[in-house]
Amino acid sequence: MDVQLYYYLAFSLVAIFFNLLSISRKGQPYPKSFPLIGSSLEFIRNRHRIILWISENFDKLSTSTYLLEGPLGLNVIFTTNPSNVKHILKTRFNIYRKESTLTSALSDLFRKGLFLVDGAEWNSQRQFIRHDFNLKMFPAYIFVTEKELSRRLSPFLSTVAKGKTTIVELQDMFRRLTFDLACQLGFGFDPEYLLPSLPATPFADAYETAVKICIRRVNTLPLIWKATKKLFNTGQPSDAWGSDWADFRPERWLEKSAGNTGRNFTYPVFQAGPRTCLGKDIAIMQMKMVVTTVLKRFRVLPAEDNFSPNYDASMTSKMKGGFPVRILERH
């Protein structure tokens, strides 16, 4: 009798659970949310395109801030409102602490470094590191960057342009360039990754593998909901970038619009407020040097018609499958 009662209760609970799953909460806007599990099903269904999905929700909900319900009441708030972003990154940044789940997952890679600490320890480390990014160091950074561009990048692109296919995977090329520069500037070591022979990149591979392992620790349900409880997503609202925000249209950066005015809290690529990236000015300087070097001698065209990138959710934004382009020399 006890066994029969046990099976009856178990069957009843399962039936009730699946009945709840079959009924979305009345009046619940997109994305669909269910009792107990929230929007976990929608999250899992879109996990391969999570960044675009999160951004699309803003358009479908016609709002700049929305609540994504997670399992067992662990909810996530997303916002593209510059005022909210400013509140988080500047006005009251001291009350928005790093989540313990996130810091624990990344601690093996970054230990108790600047990326994972708060308060007095964060302030002390930032003041110490700031000396490596002052204006006196700029000539050295410019010298190393110019040498890498003239000795490596230009010959590399010239070789590609003269090849049979004239196609190169742009994301991988910049990955090699970035590691060459970072190692030379940070460690005085040149890994020589950006070569026409496309040599193996063991150090870069090891670092990226470590990052993936750390991210995988966080990207499990329901932990991901806890880890991203204070996450905010910016840079893709239609009210700032237009209805074609998801289209690959790089000329938008040359246009003056509501979102493209250089305001830190509309598109905080380098963070903003007290946590602004210390290497921001160096990175922008290097990007300008790269663009000038490349476009002065070469034309860069998408190798695929109607190319549409799918972004990978990681510590830095990357395109899944890379970005194949065709390199043509200017005459």
TrEMBL record:
One annotated GO molecular function: iron ion binding
Gene3D superfamilies linked: Cytochrome P450
Cofactor: heme
Keyword check for Oxidoreductase: yes
Transmembrane residue ranges: 6-23
Similarity comment: Belongs to the cytochrome P450 family.
The name this protein goes by in its record: Cytochrome P450 94A2-like
Organism lineage: Eukaryota, Viridiplantae, Streptophyta, Embryophyta, Tracheophyta
